[in-house]
Amino acid sequence: GGAGGAGGARRGGLSPTLTALSCLLAFCISVCGSDVVELNEDEFRSIRTGIGARNMLVLFYSSPVNSKESEASIEVWKQLSSPLSGLVELGRINCDDLLDVCMS
């Protein structure tokens, strides 16, 4: 059985708490930049295995159509890109498109 709730599974998106935690627990990997990079499966795997040699925080999100929390997280991620410029690169992965990557 599940954890209960208001009937049915929640599709797409994270609670604000989980969204904040995903930002804080994102991947630290080894190059710096100021733009948010939309990662595809190959780019993420190369970063994750160390081939890409980048320091990156990765936001895992669902389409804003499916999740208002994700829409807000994307905006925060964009706003963080300037203050973090030179320290870490920001990336994001759309879990609606790359579910296998997000679940790995």
Radius of gyration: 14 Å
Largest sheet: 3 strands, parallel
CATH first level? Alpha Beta
CATH fold title: Glutaredoxin
Helical content class: 25-40%
Count of individual domains: 1
How far is it from the N-terminal to the C-terminal residue, by CA? 23 Å
The overall pLDDT, averaged over residues, is 73
As a percent range, the share of strand residues is 5-15%
By DSSP, the count of extended strands is 3
String of helices and strands: HEHEHEH
**Spatial strand arrangement across the major sheet:** 1-3-2
- CATH architecture label: 3-Layer(aba) Sandwich
How does the helix and strand content classify structurally? Answer: alpha/beta
Low-pLDDT runs of 5+ residues are: 27-34
- In DSSP terms (H or I, runs of 4 or more residues), the helix count works out at 4
The CATH fourth-level homologous superfamily: Glutaredoxin
> What is the global morphology?
flat
Signal peptide: 1-33
Keywords: Signal
